[in-house]
């Protein structure tokens, strides 16, 4: 049984997609172990996105991710890390297939703009452990 860390980003919360996203998770049979609405801080985001802090678009990520409350949570289930990534769809919504959350609910970013792509999910067991401990302190 794996665990993963997920978020519904501020665009998803603002657009009223919390119920839709949670419904998809429950319909799939994954268990919601933890769920919390909160405001992200630049300090937390620098740790969360440690691989992206040197990218030119990092300031846009911080602006976007601190633009309103977001939902953070932990899911458990068989192969939930990879399955949740599949349910989210590709990072750039232009590439995300219909049927995925990003493919159904998001648009490609403006050139040089932030990618408003509704959801986050850990991309490996190592990231899952790191992100769960970062956001939930365990
Ligand atoms: P992921 O969210 O699919 O795991 P990552 O590469 O980890 O994708 O990037 C984290 C987040 O940073 C993305 O979801 C997106 O919001 C933002 N991002 C990634 N690449 C770009 C980019 O090229 N331009 C603008 N924002 C980006
Ligand atoms: Mg990522």
Automatic annotation (TrEMBL):
GO biological process: CTP biosynthetic process; GTP biosynthetic process; UTP biosynthetic process
GO molecular function: ATP binding; metal ion binding; nucleoside diphosphate kinase activity
Residue span, Nucleoside diphosphate kinase-like domain: 1-138
Keyword RNA-binding: no
Positions with a binding annotation for ATP: 9, 57, 85, 91, 102, 117
Active-site residues, Swiss-Prot/TrEMBL: 120
Coiled coil region boundaries: none
Keyword Kinase applies: yes
Cofactor(s) demanded: Mg(2+)
Gene3D superfamilies (alphabetical): Nucleoside diphosphate kinase-like domain
GO cellular component: cytoplasm
Signal peptide span: none
Xref: InterPro entries: NDK-like_dom (IPR034907), NDK-like_dom_sf (IPR036850), Nucleoside_diP_kinase (IPR001564), Nucleoside_diP_kinase_AS (IPR023005)
Enzyme kind, highest EC tier: transferase
EC number of this enzyme: 2.7.4.6
Compartments where found: Cytoplasm
Transmembrane segments: none
UniProt keywords, alphabetically: ATP-binding, Cytoplasm, Kinase, Magnesium, Metal-binding, Nucleotide metabolism, Nucleotide-binding, Phosphoprotein, Transferase
UniProt-listed Pfam families: NDK
Family per similarity comment: Belongs to the NDK family.
Quaternary context: Homotetramer.
Function recorded in the entry: Major role in the synthesis of nucleoside triphosphates other than ATP. The ATP gamma phosphate is transferred to the NDP beta phosphate via a ping-pong mechanism, using a phosphorylated active-site intermediate.
Name under which the protein is recorded: Nucleoside diphosphate kinase
Species name: Candidatus Streptococcus faecavium
